[in-house]
Design goal:
mainly beta; four-stranded antiparallel β-sheet
Length: about 70
C-alpha cells in the first residue's frame, strides 16, 4: 500500500474531540523547507496548536488571523 497525502488520516484533536490535528510547514531562515513545524486543530472554535521553534515545543500559543496580499 502506497502512502498518499490525499488519503492521509489525521489524529483527532484530544482538546476538543471534534477537529483533526493537521500539520503545517514553513521555511527556515535560510529558505529550506521545515516540514511539520506546527500542528493545528481544524475546529475553528478549538484553536489548539503545537509549534516547534528552535527545537522547543510550544502548545496553545495565540492564533492570529492575518490577511496578506498574495506574493507576486
Amino acid at each position: 500500500m502506497e502512502y498518499s497525502e490525499a488519503s492521509a488520516q489525521f489524529p483527532v484533536c484530544r482538546s476538543c474531540d471534534a477537529g483533526e490535528l493537521v500539520p503545517l510547514s514553513d521555511f527556515g531562515g535560510q529558505g529550506a523547507a521545515v516540514h511539520y513545524k506546527a500542528w493545528v486543530c481544524t475546529n475553528p472554535d478549538c484553536r489548539f496548536n503545537l509549534k516547534i521553534r528552535n527545537g522547543d515545543v510550544y502548545a496553545n500559543e495565540p492564533v492570529v488571523n492575518l490577511h496578506h496580499e498574495p506574493r507576486r
